[in-house]
């Protein structure tokens, strides 16, 4: 192959690559924009008449009450496993008395909100995407529009607000159960000093550690509810389309929760740093 | 019945989804008040897209759609939501809310728009509509998944009638149904129309037999335009090649259907 031909081939590869990248970026920006507008409308429409209090309560029951059993089990075993792992590590450096606060800090600030977010996104988020997706492909959403009901206000807003309101409550429940799990293993099985366990926790843990986790949980609730309802709302292609949008909704929600966790944590810490600086 | 008064006036409506190909390519159609107008055409000629424009679910790229003199193409989302109370629609597969019973499905539009009514009054109206649509009372508490196709159509029609709409729209009401059920649905459309004087009915279908049986006016679409608009007789007399072929196919199907029914009855 001549030099000119090889160069032309390389140029073509670069062109194709640039075009692919441009299309990807374009699609990403467009879809993110659509998602943000969809989420904004869903949040705002809830405050327009007619108010959907009954739907909100139904969805709160679905998101919250029906997730309690999985949150209980996950919280309990997370507390057990985490406390045991930390105990094994800390014992080697003679710091076993710090197991309580370290476990509590990890649970309140990170594991509680993140694991609750992931679990509820998989359970309730998947169900939201599947339900709304099925309504889309069976023309039930069109029927709502023809009847003169805004489907976004009727179907999406109550689900989004139910998730935002219930996630902090579920996270608080997860935190509580996980601490009980940690207490069970460290005190009842490993026979550590119980007074020291609670004393260290109360010394090292401040209310804002708990609030931080609850705030993050509300953000995660908003994130997965908007993503999953949007996926369902824009479903096309019959039953296969419903399966695909459910799958994509859940996966995307989980990835976003983990990515958001990093940014929200940074944001909160920056906020506290500024607050401390200003109050000095 | 010919009122010559227009319920829906569609002028030069064009619609393109990609900016190049036009699904609707200059539609002009006057849908007369109080008549049954059937919109027919081969698949992909823009029937469903036109229907979505009439309902305000899609906005045209250009042109005007006036319903009872009101321009709907410039209405915002909230105005359209309110305006759609003029419409009642029977979907192809009824599109019933699958978590609600037949009665709740019919009560749903009343719960949304007639908050002045008590629950008992709503139920009374819903029962009357279901009776009008010919659904047996023992099925009122059934969920859509527990109903047959014909029963679902009846509930769908009852729901469409719940708010006493001025315009009734039927999207492919007989597609996929057997001849007996097709006739039942046709009769239901006719009896509903006759009971509600002044209601404008629009049926989107490619079932020519049904079109000729129940239509006062027929509009045939081709390539996003109205190829012919007139009475069923105008269609039989038409010299337009595409219309002649469509009519011929419809007549042949009718003969085949009659032969099949006859053979079944004999056996």
Radius of gyration of chain A, in angstroms, nearest whole number = 24 Å
Helix content estimate of chain B? 40-55%
Please give the most extensive interface between any two protein chains, plus how many residues each contributes. A-B, 13 and 24 residues
Mean pLDDT reading of chain A: 94
Largest sheet of chain B: 6 strands, mixed
The overall average pLDDT of chain B, rounded, is 86
Number of strands of chain A: 0
Radius of gyration of chain B: 19 Å
Please provide the ordered H/E string of secondary-structure elements of chain A: HHHHHHHHH
Amount of helix of chain A: over 70%
Q: Main beta sheet of chain A, described?
A: none
Helix count of chain A, per DSSP?
A: 9
Structural class of chain B: alpha/beta
What distance separates the N and C termini of chain A? 71 Å
**Silhouette of chain A:** globular
Point out poorly predicted stretches of chain B: none
Describe this structure in words.
The complex is a heterodimer of chains A (280) and B (267). Chain A has two domains: 1-45; 51-279, no CATH class. Chain A is mostly helical and 280 residues long. Chain A starts with a helix and ends with a helix. Chain A contains nine helices and no strands. The mean pLDDT of chain A is 94. Chain B has a domain at 96-165. The radius of gyration of chain B is 19 Å and the shape is globular. Chain B has 267 residues and is an alpha/beta fold. Chain B has helices spanning 47-55, 77-83, 102-113, 119-132, 149-161, 179-195, 208-214, 232-237, 241-266; strands spanning 6-16, 22-32, 36-40, 62-67, 70-71, 87-90, 167-171, 200-204, 217-222, 225-230. In chain B, a hairpin with a 2-residue loop joins strand 4 and strand 5. In chain B, helix 3 (102-113) packs across helix 4 (119-132), helix 3 runs parallel beside helix 5 (149-161) and helix 4 crosses helix 5 (149-161). Chain B has nine helices and ten strands. Classes of the chains: A mainly alpha (280), B alpha/beta (267). The A-B interface holds A 50, 134, 138-140, 142-143, 145-150 and B 55, 57, 77-78, 81-85, 87, 89, 91-93, 95-98, 108-109, 112-113, 115, 159.
């Amino acid at each position: 192959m001549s030099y000119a031909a090889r160069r032309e081939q390389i140029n073509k590869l670069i062109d194709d690559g640039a075009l692919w990248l441009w299309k990807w970026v374009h699609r990403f920006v467009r879809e993110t924009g659509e998602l943000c507008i969809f989420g904004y409308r869903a949040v705002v429409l809830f405050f327009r008449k007619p108010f959907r209090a009954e739907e909100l309560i139904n969805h709160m029951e679905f998101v919250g009450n029906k997730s309690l059993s999985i949150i209980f089990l996950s919280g309990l075993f997370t507390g057990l496993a985490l406390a045991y792992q930390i105990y094994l590590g800390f014992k080697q450096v003679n710091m076993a008395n710090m197991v309580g606060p370290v476990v509590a800090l990890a649970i309140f600030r990170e594991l509680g909100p993140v694991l609750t977010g992931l679990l509820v996104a998989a359970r309730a988020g998947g169900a939201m995407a599947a339900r709304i997706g099925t309504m889309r492909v069976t023309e039930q959403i069109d029927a709502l529009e023809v009847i003169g009901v805004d489907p976004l206000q009727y179907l999406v807003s109550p689900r989004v607000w139910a998730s935002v309101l219930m996630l902090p409550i579920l996270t608080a429940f997860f935190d509580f159960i996980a601490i009980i799990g940690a207490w069970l293993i460290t005190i009842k099985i490993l026979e550590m000093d119980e007074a020291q366990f609670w004393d260290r926790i109360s010394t090292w843990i401040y209310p804002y550690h708990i609030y931080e986790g609850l705030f993050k949980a509300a953000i995660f609730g908003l994130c997965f509810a908007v993503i999953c309802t949007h996926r369902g709302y824009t479903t096309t292609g019959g039953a296969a389309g419903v399966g695909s949008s459910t799958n994509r909704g859940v996966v995307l929600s989980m990835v976003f929760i983990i990515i958001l966790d990093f940014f929200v944590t940074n944001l909160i810490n920056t906020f506290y740093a500024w607050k401390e600086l200003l109050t000095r | 019945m010919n009122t010559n008064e227009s319920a829906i006036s569609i002028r030069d409506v064009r619609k393109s989804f990609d900016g190049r190909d036009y699904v609707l390519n200059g539609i002009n159609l006057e849908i007369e008040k109080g008549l049954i107008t059937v919109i027919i055409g081969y698949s992909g000629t823009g029937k469903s897209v036109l229907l979505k424009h009439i309902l305000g679910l899609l906005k045209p790229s250009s042109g005007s759609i006036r319903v009872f003199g009101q321009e709907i193409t410039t209405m915002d989302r909230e105005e359209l939501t309110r305006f759609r109370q003029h419409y009642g629609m029977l979907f192809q597969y009824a599109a019933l809310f699958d978590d609600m019973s037949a009665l709740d499905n019919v009560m749903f539009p009343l719960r949304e728009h007639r908050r002045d009514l008590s629950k008992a009054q709503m139920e009374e109206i819903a029962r009357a509509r279901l009776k009008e649509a010919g659904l047996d009372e023992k099925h009122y508490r059934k969920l859509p998944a527990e109903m047959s196709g014909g029963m679902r159509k009846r509930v769908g029609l009852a729901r469409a009638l719940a708010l006493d709409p001025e315009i009734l729209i039927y999207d492919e009401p007989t597609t996929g149904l057997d001849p007996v059920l097709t006739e039942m649905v046709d009769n239901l459309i006719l009896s509903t129309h006759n009971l509600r004087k002044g209601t404008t009915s629009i049926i989107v279908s490619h079932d020519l037999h049904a079109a000729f049986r129940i239509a006062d006016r027929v509009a045939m679409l081709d390539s996003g335009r109205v190829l012919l608009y007139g009475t069923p007789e105008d269609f039989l007399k038409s010299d337009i090649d595409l219309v002649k072929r469509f009519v011929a196919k419809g007549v042949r199907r009718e003969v085949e259907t009659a032969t099949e029914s006859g053979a079944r009855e004999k056996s």
